[in-house]
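Notes from hallway chat w/ T.B., transcribed later so I don't forget. T.B. wanted the structure written out for a chain they're using in a teaching module, and asked if we could keep both sequence and structure tokens in one place. Agreed to drop them here.
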Amino acid sequence: MKKIEILAPAGDIDRAKIAFLYGADAIYIGGKEYSLRANAQNFSINEINEITKFAHSFKKKVYVTFNIIFHNEDLDGYKEYLNDLISCEIDAIILADPFLIPIIKKKYPDIKIILSTQNGAANIENVLFWKSEGVDRVVLARELSKEEIKEIKDKTSMELEVFIHGAMCTNFSGRCVLSNYFTNRDANRGGCAQICRYCFKINDNSNNIFAISPKDLNMAEHIGDLIKIGVDSIKIEGRMRSAYYLATVISSYRRLVDAYYKEKLTPNLVVQEEKILQRVANRESSTHFFKKKADVNDQYYVGRDEVSNQDFLGFVLDYDETTKILTLEERNKFSTGDKVIIFGPNGFLYKFKIKEIYDEDMNVIDCARHAKQIIKLKVSRKIPKYSMMKIEI
């Protein structure tokens, strides 16, 4: 049985490796040009080549976004850049502007073409049209219900990609011009200023505020439904998210997907993973359009309370098997007596209580209180590279 693909974002080389090591089957990344996340660090051609080789060594895939809406001034050099991307042996190109399709099909017939969510594919005829044009996969609009997704799959047999987690757009699947009007930054060419996250004062002398911001998407409870429908790829949003966020979210969905295929996807497991997912971000979440039309419960209207937690304690830098000393780079304060969890690649999980904390020179200290301080702990179990430590809740 072909398993559903977990597709994760990555804003740079380090986060791309984290995504793969924590369970992503494929990643989508942006190059320095023609990508919708212009404020992300993004990848040079050499870095795209490097991460593609890394991915293929694990039999995993790399998709590159080429998904701006082109203006005349954007056309200079795109053919040369496209050729550079193909030379990296990437697995697919995600595009939005349809003029690229015949060019790619003619010159690079073996590269997979994925239609971006920017096109707002939301019905059977739309998907059939893109299929006839040579598109290999369609990223569906985020505004579709379970029934609509199923009907599109059943009546088109098209390869479908569906967003399952992360930020939502106020406007229909990214077709926003608010950023242009407020900041002169074009959202459809990578410059979104996220105006929908602003809180606006209401001019009624009451100091009230108004927001137009949707809550985040969280589809953990419906992973089984998406697999049964026949969705080919489930997509996590967030090329600008942190490594800790990606590791946490990807590993949660990895556990849910694997549990489904092992016939161990229980309501208790879903509840457990939802608790983890809810704590990794500081915004509320919902399933939005999947079960019903989105309503007041899926939106912030009068402001919001987004308080970041300090769960993430540090990155593991090294583990010495001889001395059993763990070295990590601190992110948030922790003290002796704290109960913590170290989680890592391939589902690694280890819980323990901190007995002693040492600084970089092995002096005993009562707590780690300085961000990016090098800290050492005595840990009896071998800890894999690229692991992270968080507080046990």
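Follow-up for T.B.: The first helix runs from residue 13 to 21. Might be a good example for the class.
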